[in-house]
Design a protein that fits this description.
Shape: globular
Oligomer: single chain
Bound molecules: zinc ion
Radius of gyration: 20 Å
Distance between the termini: 47 Å
Strand order of the largest sheet: 3-4-7-9-8-13-14-12-11-10
Length: 330
């Protein structure tokens, strides 16, 4: 059973999940990375736990696969869906690792670069995100759900077959609390959502605009942590990711694909991470927080200065990053 421990100084939570040590080695270093041995490829469905959700493409008869996106429980979960009560060990706070950890398998074929998936596939992936969020939020033990993706060994992926993950947590992570508090403070002072202001700013100057469609915008943030960091935001204010309409799933899929293609062209298919930041489950929809997706291409290793300070040093401005991404020929 995993355990969640709290650092007594800064209140940071960590997950200790020794079972995850049994995960397969990094791909390329073991034999399980081939198509035949890949647990995510069509035909190998028995190598994963039974699926929680599956989307089938009835129109595509060219493929032997009976599905195009599957969601399965993570075979090596960081958290498990068992009862957990807070416990105190001396002065140290810990609790059993209750939660959920799932994998979204993004293609039946052995694709390794998400950007090369079809438009339809991206739209189905976003629908899978929506559906699982809606389902997981009905479990009252969970307080936060994070959807995230690691592509490439350097970005933390252990299997190369395209996939993303969804994790339900019994608490709200500090990164999220920090963002919500910041946006609340901004709202109280200015009576406007700070993210909406950001979007409005880019609509004017367009200096940090990467790409947009009718419902979404992709931009490089003013003070990023990494070079070529991109945020995707809905143009209409919304604090809850899965509360958006069906048409939004299509537009989000489109802009995500567009952005990843640009990054691939500009930066030579770098490893990357992305994640979706949305409202905590027990907070109602509000005017100050605005859900978004953050993408970090993995171009450098985070060093001692960044770890020691939480500050970041750049050799490329977000304005230059945005221009290069904007001008990338797709
Ligand atoms: Zn595969
Ligand atoms: Zn907003
Ligand atoms: Zn965020």
């Amino acid at each position: 059973m995993p355990e969640i421990r709290k650092d007594p100084v800064v209140g940071r939570w960590v997950i200790i999940s020794t079972e995850r040590a049994n995960r397969p080695l990094h791909y390329g270093l073991n034999n399980d990375s081939s198509e035949n041995g890949c647990p995510f490829c069509a035909g190998n469905e028995d190598k994963t736990p039974p699926e929680l959700l599956v989307f089938r493409d009835k129109t595509d008869s060219s493929t032997a696969a009976a599905w195009n996106v599957r969601v399965v429980p993570n075979k090596y979960p960081a958290l498990v869906a068992a009862e957990g009560k807070p416990v105190l060990t001396g002065k140290n706070e810990a609790q059993s690792g209750v939660g959920a950890h799932e994998v979204i398998i993004e293609s039946p074929h052995h694709a390794t670069d998400m950007a090369l998936l079809s438009e339809t596939q991206f739209r189905v992936i976003v629908r899978a995100y929506h559906d699982r969020m809606k389902q997981l939020r009905t479990d009252r033990r969970f307080r936060y759900i994070l959807i995230y993706k690691n592509q490439g060994v350097e970005a933390g992926a252990t299997l190369e077959h395209v996939h993303s993950q969804i994790i339900a947590l019994p608490g709200v992570p500090a990164r999220v609390t920090e963002e919500i508090q910041g946006s609340k403070d901004y709202y109280e002072l200015n009576k406007r959502c700070v993210f909406c202001e950001m979007i409005r700013g880019e609509n004017g100057a367009r200096q940090r605009l990467v790409t947009e469609n009718s419902r979404f915008i992709a931009l490089c943030p003013f003070a990023p942590r990494f070079g070529y960091e991109v945020w995707i935001l809905p143009k209409t204010h919304s604090s809850v990711f899965e509360a958006t309409a069906e048409q939004d799933a299509a537009d989000l899929g489109d802009i995500l694909r567009d952005t990843l293609l640009r990054m691939g062209r500009c930066l030579g298919n770098p490893p990357f991470n992305y994640f979706i930041h949305s409202n905590p489950l027990d907070e109602s929809a509000n005017d100050h927080y605005h859900w978004h997706l953050e993408i970090f291409p993995k171009l450098i290793q985070v060093g001692g200065f960044e770890w020691g300070t939480g500050w970041y040093i750049h050799t490329v401005t977000p304005e230059q990053s945005a221009r290069a991404l904007r001008e990338a020929i797709l």
